[in-house]
Structure formats: structure tokens, C-alpha cells
Sequence to fold (168 residues):
Amino acid sequence: MSLLDYFRSSKPNSASLAKERLQILVAHERASRNQPSYLPELQQELLAVIRKYVNVSQDAITVHFDQDGNQETLELNIVLPEDR
Amino acid sequence: MSLLDYFRSSKPNSASLAKERLQILVAHERASRNQPSYLPELQQELLAVIRKYVNVSQDAITVHFDQDGNQETLELNIVLPEDR
Fold:
């Protein structure tokens, strides 16, 4: 799934407007495929930072990692509870 | 600038393919405008985390913050030096 498709599909509609969402997208365009990827580790640290701001359980967070050639993308989708 | 425009304009071309880039996009869809925004603080913490992985100077990082109704977006663009 391309970044463009991602944002097209996540466009808010009337049913979703009342909910609070946080989406984080990391795109890493690497100069070479031979370097190790640091996105999985970065993901853990990003989640730790986000948890300082929003009180969410692990199952409210959807993570998607994608690799296509030298381009890596990491998507974090967080839906916050409405009754906070 | 919408999220879509952002990714359209940042589509890699032949001249940019050799460079290493890291792009981070945070979209916060808020349930209410009355809450304080935590994105500016979150931005500082995200940059601190990223600096653990990539050795970049402050001027290699472009930050763009946008607010449109209940939707806030934060873009971090990092171009890494080629001669690392």
C-alpha cells in the first residue's frame, strides 16, 4: 500500500469525526539496502513517547511495516477511547 | 498543504534517489478543539528519539505544523548527508 493510498483510505468521514485518532507515519528512503533497518527499534521508542501523552492500551494501536525496495514505511494508528 | 499534496510533492525522482531521507508525519484528529495540543511537545521528543538513530544537525531538519479545524498535522523532514 502506498503512502497516498493510506491517506486516501484514512480520510475522515462523518462517522469517524467524533473519535480521536493519532496517526504516525515514518517513511525512510535509504541510500542503500545494505544498511540494517532501525525502524523496528524506532517504533518501540515512538510508542513509548506517545504513551506519555495518550493513555492507550496496546490493542488500540495498529502497527504496519512495509518495505518496497529502498523505501521503508512504518504506520502507527491509534484510536483513542471516546469516554476518557 | 494537505497530507496528499505533501506526499505527491515528495515523490522521489531520479535526482533524489541516492539521498537518504527520513520523513515523519503525525496526524492528530481531535474529538474537540478545546483540548490543548500536545503536538509541539511531542515533536521535541520525536526529534530526540530520531537523533539517537541518525546523526543530523538541526538545519537538516524541516518541521511543518498545520492546523485545520480539528485536524492537526506535524511533518518532520530529515535529509541525511551523503558523505556519512
